[in-house]
Amino acid sequence: MLVLEKVTVRLGGIPILREVNIEIAKASTVALIGANGAGKTTTLRTIMGLTKMTGRIGFDGGDLTVVAPSRRPILGIGYAAEDRRLFSGFTVEENIKMPGQVARFSSDELQRRLARVYGILPELREMAGRPAGAVSGGQGKMVALGRALMIGSKLIMLDEPFQGLAPALARRYADALRKLRETDRNITLIITESNPELLKNFAERTLVIDRGVLRATRQAALA
């Protein structure tokens, strides 16, 4: 479903990713674990086409490296960056709908996907008319997840989604991910995290990255 072959990224001549090889199956939930600066965020950004790289990335049977970054979400890839990147002057619902509008979904498709987002994250319906700039940091991560769900029909990538969340909100976020998995068993999830304990009972597979090198993989038995 997603294949990285000898993917290398350098920033200012310094290697950030070093010949990373990853193969991720359809409908799997994968945790990408590593310390700060290990290369987790760069891996996701590279899949989205936001870095200069060498190597190859295959997605859903095609060559992703020849697809412009602006076109990659349209292939069904949703991405929630660590810093959320919400448009503060827009409402919560406008932020959620934006990827679908950029992809030129029909009105019916836009509403169908919005209903899917609200079904998984009903609290976003309650915040729909609120300016995105007025939500808390934790609520903003929920909005970013909803926006990724709007476009991510095949693959959703979440960068450090639990970082900075209060325990109650972290549990709610995890519940939403479980509901997503139950609702759509064909979707693939990649979640980065510094603390492996947070995902040990959720991810089916753990990839460990250290200083830009994929050093080990672990297969997890879910509780």
Order of helices and strands: EEEHEEEHHHHEHEEE
- Percent in strands: 25-35%
Radius of gyration: 17 Å
Largest sheet strand order: 6-7-8-3-9-10
> In angstroms, what separates the terminal alpha carbons?
25 Å
The CATH topology: Rossmann fold
Query: What structural class do you assign from the helix and strand content?
Result: alpha/beta
CATH superfamily: P-loop containing nucleotide triphosphate hydrolases
Tell the overall outline: globular
Helix content: 25-40%
Count of domains: 1
Structure description:
The chain has 6 helices and 10 strands; from the N terminus they run βββαβββααααβαβββ. It has helices at 40-47, 92-102, 107-120, 122-126, 137-151, 167-183, and strands at residues 2-11, 14-24, 29-33, 53-59, 62-63, 77-80, 155-158, 188-193, 205-210, 213-219. Strand 4 and strand 5 form a beta hairpin. Helix 2 runs parallel beside helix 5 and helix 3 crosses helix 5 (137-151). The radius of gyration is 17 Å and the shape is globular. It starts with a strand and ends with a strand.
